[in-house]
Amino acid sequence: MSETEENLPSERETPHEGAVGKADNPFADPGLPPHEHRIQDIDERAAKRSERTVAMLFLVSMLATVAFIASYVAIPIDKIVYIFPLGHVSGLNFALGLTLGVALFCIGAGAVHWARTLMSDEEVADERHPIEATPDVKAKVLADFAQGAKESQFGRRKLIRNTMFGALALVPLSGVVLLRDLGPLPEKKLRTTGWKKGVRLVNQSTNLPLRPEDIAVGSLTFAKPEGLEENDEDFANKIAKDALMLVRIQPQNIKDKQELAWSHEGIVAYSKICTHVGCPISLYEQQTHHVLCPCHQSTFDLSDGGRVIFGPAGHALPQLHITVKDGFLEAASEFAEPVGPSFWERG
């Protein structure tokens, strides 16, 4: 054998014509292995066990969501518990985190177990297609969706379907319940004040009941309901609605007929709370009978029903109907409308 013949590759080493080795094309498709059926595909009893497992996970999620809501309501916010190895932690935060975590985990675990054991697991190769969908592609997508729904056995596995719907329906309640932390519900507290028929007007500075002769023409006097004391636990919240201002105007200078009827010898009583954002009004111009809110310069005319003559306030100041009994000024009724910012026109 010559030296040339020795350097030639043998027949075994010579690649076939047109063939590409792995060394030449490392991305060559080695081919998919044969599909192996799962036990659930061939044994209905195993499929039922998987179905019950998924349903149990969804059911646990539902129970955990209920426990989340119960913990939020039942556990005091200042409850401290010892949890090993965390140490002393807030009992409420721990319970909320644990129950919400279990609820979300069980939904995810149930979905994963459902997909791995009951949904179709056959590998399907599909070619890339243009972004713009053709009618044929749309028809194929709809057909694939229908086929996928059929293969997922969503309609057949009613136990899974119903428990999954239950878990997904309950979990959002956790977020709804947390809205309670935005503050207590106002209910009708913003629509009522401490003023009622027969409640005397008390000077806020001297703490003494007011007589008509205590109010001079051109003066501005602040009043509160009798019985409201500064050492009361809820004084700040109550005075924020009950604060009253009194001015005395010559009756002939009062333009509004209702204002005149609700006054006593020219003494008119108006809410001190601005109808814009609730700032206390404290500036009075006796020549024009105007009061000014120092926050945003809303201006009201106390000789014309407390109407707005300037600024962002949207409503007139509420007037309190007053009268005299046993020589002292008192309320003849409640305010005709809620005091303060005009939230009420939207509710």
Automatic annotation (TrEMBL):
Xref: InterPro entries: QcrA_N (IPR045603), Rieske_2Fe-2S (IPR017941), Rieske_2Fe-2S_sf (IPR036922), Rieske_Fe-S_prot (IPR014349), Rieske_Fe-S_prot_C (IPR005805)
SUPFAM superfamilies: ISP domain (SSF50022)
Principal place of residence: membrane
Compartments, as annotated in UniProt: Cell membrane
This protein's record includes keyword Thylakoid: no
Cellular component annotations (GO), alphabetically ordered: plasma membrane
Cofactors demanded by this protein: [2Fe-2S] cluster
Location of the region described as Disordered in the Swiss-Prot/TrEMBL record: 1-36
Protein keywords: 2Fe-2S, Cell membrane, Disulfide bond, Electron transport, Iron, Iron-sulfur, Membrane, Metal-binding, Oxidoreductase, Respiratory chain, Transmembrane, Transmembrane helix, Transport
Transmembrane segments: 54-75, 95-115, 159-179
One GO MF term: oxidoreductase activity, acting on paired donors, with incorporation or reduction of molecular oxygen
Membrane topology category: Multi-pass membrane protein
Similarity comment text for this entry: Belongs to the Rieske iron-sulfur protein family.
Annotated function: Iron-sulfur subunit of the cytochrome bc1 complex, an essential component of the respiratory electron transport chain required for ATP synthesis. The bc1 complex catalyzes the oxidation of menaquinol and the reduction of cytochrome c in the respiratory chain. The bc1 complex operates through a Q-cycle mechanism that couples electron transfer to generation of the proton gradient that drives ATP synthesis.
Quaternary context: The cytochrome bc1 complex is composed of a cytochrome b (QcrB), the Rieske iron-sulfur protein (QcrA) and a diheme cytochrome c (QcrC) subunit.
Protein name: Cytochrome bc1 complex Rieske iron-sulfur subunit
